[in-house]
Amino acid sequence: MSTPAPSPPDGPLLARKSSSSSPSVAPPALAKDPECKKGSSDLLYAIEDNPSWCECIIFGFQHYLAMVGGTISIPIIVSSYLCLEESNPARGVLVSTIIFMSGIITFLQATFGVRLPIIQGGNFAYVIPTIAVLTTAFEPCKDLPLASMTEAEREEAWQVRMREVQGSIAVSALFQVMVGFTGVIGLLLTWITPLSIVPTVTLVGLSLFEVASKQGSGHWGIYLLTVGLLIIMSQHMRDVSVPVPFYERGKGFVTLRCQPFRTTSLLIAILITWVLCAILTMSGALPEGSAARTDLTTPMVARAPWFYVPYPGQFGMPTASVAGTLGMLAAVLASIIESVGDYYACARISGAPMPPTHAINRGIGTEGIGCMIAGLWGTGSGTTSYSGNIGILGITKVGSRRVVQVSAIIMIVCGVFGKMGAFFVTIPEPIIAAVFTIKFAMITAMGISTLQFVDLSSSRNLFVLGFSIFFGLSLPKWMQEHGDAISTGAPLLDQTIQVLLQTSMFVGGFLGFLLDNTIPGTDEERGLVAWKGKIQTSAEGGDDLVNRCYDMPFGMSVIKRAKWLRYIPFCPRYKGFSKDILPSCRKTKMNGTST
How far is Cα 106 from Cα 104, in angstroms, rounded to an integer? Predict the structure, then answer.
């Protein structure tokens, strides 16, 4: 199914010194199958390529560092609403649990789900309904007499709250499982066009600029230093070769050409600024409370268990209420919409064909399963595709599925060894903010790049594009400041509408979807003719590259022999609604002939 892993001396990190002035750095797999480089002219490893294990660990570790800060911040935020004291070691258990489960769900998604190199982690969309559930269904933490309560009573006080959150997330995830595995989400693909994808993907990046700027403002010097290093290393120095001595049996020491900045610029930049912050912290150069200090999270590291294996029901049997479930359902809807855009962006940047209907159905269904088990284990949040890590693929030029699978194993190990996972929380926020800035910029650019299919001289298209993006930024911002503006008399409905309208990618994507499918325009003007050429093969599942990317890792011979499986929406044999995709394109005449 995939190409053999290149040996270290011939990979992109190490290239054997030769008489040629510019050593080749392209993996053998890409040289044999240039079609794997679709969508990225300088991709080092495409989706089906397997780097060496050493490279996989390095690249996978980069993904872990890029996602861990955002993921563990969710249980930290939720802990205060669970009435967990700062000194309670359960906070460390929550951190270990969400890292551990993110690894398991990432491996399931990359191996059996949509099969794209996409990281799964805690979803911030669940934070708002979680807080709403905890503040409306339970007594405020400030009113609890924690000082006079026994240890068992304090334990029950926060665990009963967690069980309500767990149950609400798990039950609401059933909707996502149903939407994915029954093929309902695939029906919507018939009307998803370039002008509905562009606002959705673009706003994934643009809507998060405030997160990066807020965290970066803690120490602009460290933030700008990290951004500068990332830009210089990943762009200006990516072709710089460094001679490295290497011992080879039978030949002794030989000189190899190392190009570390081509694929590990993110890791190198983080390590440099992280070590610098540690030195400044120990020397006292950074004042107490500075966001650039590395000792701010020391108490969490101390509280984290050395070894802990999370298990379902570790906080008791989950419970669920109608109010809590409906509130979480809003987060599920936002997650589904965001993930579909993420799949298209990830496919483009990793050198994969456009995901066919069965892969998207399976991906959404797998995310639903992930949210269910995350709820049962007690992460305090559902999980979703991490948009930011898609940007890492563009920075490192490594879109290999194997790398993400190794990253998932790293998450599982760090989740089990609690001290190890908590140690990386010492990375200062300004450094994480700098990584966010580069990642979100790449996601924004990937969304905009889809405009290559549409006619940008059309005033119709410019209106749909401009209005969808601008209003997709404006309305959520206003809703965040006026959360009580929605008042229908039904609190559950108010909460659902509020969450959806505060999600930029939902607002912008919905407007792009609605306007592009209702405002008159020709198929060529809307980009459907060019877009059809990209997705028709994927939808019909007839291309060898599509089969190789999105088929199951094993058992395909049995699946291909069972004809009835073509009617199962998440099966690789599923033909989808290929006969109905862009039906009006068949009526468009190109070069005088009907298409």
Answer: 6
How many whole angstroms separate alpha carbon 573 and alpha carbon 540?
9
Q: Element (H or E) spanning 359, and its range?
A: helix 357-377
- Beta bridge partners of residue 258, listed in sequence order: 14, 242
Q: Taking a C-beta distance cutoff of 8 angstroms, is the pair 198, 443 a contact?
A: no
- Which helix (H) or strand (E) element contains residue 102? helix 90-111
pLDDT digits (tens, 9 = 90+) for 328-384: 887 787 788 778 878 888 888 888 888 888 999 999 999 999 999 999 999 888 888
Nearest to 119 by CA among 392, 344, 431: 392
The DSSP annotation for 171-233 comes to: HHHHHHHHHHHTTHHHHHGGG--HHHHHHHHHHHHHTTHHHHHHHHTT-HHHHHHHHHHHHII
Q: Is 583 exposed, middle or buried (0-12, 13-18, 19+ CB in 10 A)?
A: exposed
* Beta strand extents in 249-327 (DSSP E only): 252-258
DSSP 451: G
Residue 407 structure tokens: 């990253």
CB proximity list for 144: less than 8 A, separation 6 or greater: 83, 157
- Stretch 558-567: mean pLDDT: 86
CA–CA separation, 354 and 535 (whole Å):
6
Where along the chain do its domains lie?
Answer: 44-518
Kindly report the backbone phi and psi dihedral angles of residue 569, in degrees, each rounded to the nearest multiple of 5, phi listed first: -60, -25
CA-nearest of 495, 488, 24, 505 to 259 is 24
pTM value is 0.73
Task: Name the strands in the sheet holding 242-248, side by side, starting at the edge strand that comes first in the sequence.
Answer: 14-16, 252-258, 242-248
- Spell out the SS3 assignment of 395-435: HHCECCHHHHHHHHHHHHHHHHCHHHHHHHHHCCHHHHHHH
pLDDT score of 543: 55
Residue length, the chain? 595
Q: What b/e string do you get for 527-538 counting C-beta neighbours within 10 Å, with b at 16 or more?
A: bbbebbebbbbb
At a CB cut-off of 8 Å and minimum separation 6, what does 528 contact? 193, 194, 582, 584, 585
Displacement of CA 217 from its chain's centroid (Å): 24
Separation of alpha carbons 161 and 164, rounded Å: 5
What is the per-residue pLDDT across 512-548, written as a single tens digit (0 to 9) for each?
989 999 999 998 899 888 776 665 544 444 456 667 7
Q: Is residue 79 within 8 Å of 98, Cβ to Cβ? A: no
Nearest to 174 by CA among 328, 385, 339: 328
Q: What is the per-residue pLDDT across 130-185, written as a single tens digit (0 to 9) for each?
A: 887 787 778 888 888 877 888 888 888 889 999 999 999 999 999 999 999 999 88
Interatomic CA distance for residues 108 and 111, integer angstroms:
5
Distance CA 93, CA 87 (A): 12
Query: What is the C-alpha to C-alpha distance for residues 275 and 536, in angstroms, rounded to an integer?
Result: 50
